[in-house]
Amino acid sequence: MGKDTKGFFRRKWFLRIISLILALFLFMYVNGSKSGFLRQNTRNNNQSSALMSNKSVTLRMPLDVTIDNNKYIVSGYPQYVKVKVTGPSALVTTTSNTQNFKVYADLSDLTPGKHRVKLKTSGLNSELTSKIEPQYINVNIQPRKTITMKVTIRLSTRDLDNGYKLGHPHSDIQTVQVTGSRDEVNKVNRIVAFVAIPHDAKDNIARQVTLQAIDRNGQTLNVVISPTTTNVSIPISAGSQSSSSSDSSSSSSEESEETKSSSRTSSRNDSSDSSSETSQSSSSISNEDSSSSSRNQ
Questions:
Q1: Closest Cα to residue 221, out of 49, 57, 73?
Q2: What is the Cα–Cα distance from 195 to 90, expressed in whole angstroms?
């Protein structure tokens, strides 16, 4: 029985079947591994292609101006500019998220006056290209000037509807520093703290007011005021109209009392005169009757 079993496994057709099955398993394994490898390679190639493909993005960047701020004032330039960045997708995405570069205008070698300047970028990766919009800006460079001026308080009204009276306003800041371009500072006529007063105000007013630089025509000027605000207090008291109306009422009351007293005195005098006349009349009648009776006798 054991010899037959060993002989069965040694037969050629059995070995051929086993070899075929093993070959099929080996083929399936190799084919599956190859397909997975190809799929992995395809996925990696797609990712690599996506990372290496070009991409563009437009960013809104602040504009830096390079100049000696202690000597000069620059006006006329925009605060922000647009920058179109183009390059590998990964670098563009990183640059868009970090914005680790700057856009600037170099004015350090320019003299006072008006100039047209080309904008530049700094800190941008060398594999990226940029296009700035606008490419050129117009600037006005003026010598810097600082002066000291007094603060003037201006009220929206001087008269209140309820008869109350405004007192003298007071500011906790008497003078301020005014800084700007020489041409603009020379136009400053006064520094104003404008306070709006309600027409029905009855109590003292306290306001924190932003200061304004005004020229001779009442136009606001583009200068820097330091400090920028002041605290203004305005006392309010009862006006002369209310007190005069009170005095008038008191005077009318006194006149009324005097009139009533005079009327009562006049009435008493008239009554006394009337009783006197009545007494005299009765005495006259009595005398006439007495004389008449004497003649009859």
A1: 73
A2: 57
